[in-house]
Design a protein that fits this description.
- α3 packs across α4 and α4 packs across α6.
- By secondary structure, the chain is mainly alpha-helical.
- The longest helix has 20 residues.
Length: about 110
């Protein structure tokens, strides 16, 4: 669901904010997650999944807060005690949750 929202699976996706690859990792996050080659799809997905797991742990399994932190950063989620009032982040969560529900229904 995160890949669908972030890059639609485009291997060479790059955002205006310099996020890269299918999981749209920024360089500092990729480095923190041990990603050696941000453009390698496997490395990018593993790094993005590890970061998402870290955010789920940080926010006690709260998927919405984890997704908000994936998009806006954990400090923004903590500052606002939940989803930040950023239109981009709110749309990101809605879109990603729709993908999650779609993929669950498809199982």
């Amino acid at each position: 669901a995160v890949i669908a929202t972030e890059s639609r699976g485009q291997l060479n996706a790059k955002s205006g904010k310099n996020a890269k690859g299918v999981m749209q990792l920024i360089d500092s996050t990729a480095s923190q997650m041990g990603v050696n080659n941000i453009w390698n799809p496997y490395d990018n997905i593993m790094g993005g999944a590890k970061y998402l797991r870290t955010m789920l742990d940080r926010f006690n399994g709260d998927t919405v807060k984890a997704l908000a932190s994936y998009n806006a950063g954990p400090s923004a989620v903590e500052k606002h005690n939940g989803v930040p009032p950023y239109k981009e982040t709110q749309q990101y969560i809605k879109k990603t949750m729709n993908y999650i529900n779609y993929f669950k229904a498809s199982e």
